[in-house]
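Hey team,

Filing this mostly as a record. A colleague (T.K.) asked me to run one chain through the structure pipeline before their review meeting, and I want the input and output archived in the tracker in case anyone asks later how it was produced. No errors, nothing strange. Just documentation.

Input sequence:
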Amino acid sequence: MLITRLVLSSAFVLLQISKKRRSLSPPPDIIIFTDGSVKSSPPRSTCAIFIPVLNCSKSWLLSQGSGIFTAELYGILKALETIYALDQLPPCIHIFSDSSSAIKALSSPKSPTHSCISEIKNLLNCLLSSGTKTVIYWIPSHSGITGNEIADNLASDESDPPSRSLIENTLSTGELISSSKHSWGKSLLAHLHNCKKPCVQMRAKPGLILWHHSKDRATSTCLHRLRNDHNHLNAFSHRIDQDADPSCRLGCPAIESTKHVLIDCPTHHAHRLNLIRFFNLNCLPLNPQTLLGLDPSISPKTQFKINNLLSSYLSKTGLRFIA
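Output structure:
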């Protein structure tokens, strides 16, 4: 019969238990403190145990990508393995952990979702068959309980990393997904850092760029398509279908690109006079990057004026429905 007890007590009562542990357990019983730790820089997952009566302090390094739940479970597993390896087993062991999620998972009647839970339950049954009962308690972390603080220090970076033994544990499904997401995110960020497209820029603060939008939905959609160069212009259609004609649909021999429809196409010259005049007065370069609000050096006040003029240009030329 598997005996696992979840004790949820106040910090005051737990401190009293810690101070009077002799009255709590007979001398042959063994008290163990376990803990797990996960650090992001450098990435490191560890677990540790502290057994006062045996003067045993150990820590282990887990496979990279292991989460705090796994680290806490392996702390309990290593505590049980250490006791099971003793020549003379005690009648009872008392394990103190600050992970309520790990204890609840162990006491749950549901099928284990983590391989370490199965190993712990198997070892608990083996100990019970040998005459050793196991009681697992929850205690609050960082509450001045000496044994817990020692285990926490062992699991954290305060101990010497090279002295830790390595546990080559298999990552759970959730940890594999999290690790893949993290790796993909780093790869994507590195790619974006090296991307030369003017529409890809690194920003210090997230959120909408107000001058990238327009009150008219069709105009806003057109502006976004022109910025990322994925639009309905013939140049982009030709990139998808090599048989498509990339030249201007208004009869120009030039390729119908973003630059062509905004700056070069002679058919729309009369409609862009206000834009040309404004750029000349403000000594701004007339290019797609500046027109589409992709130059962060220009003040917001000027950006809004450019956006209004460009929105008017797209509306008058009908480009907002084409691009």
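Quick notes for T.K.: The first helix runs from residue 11 to 19. The longest strand covers residues 30-40.
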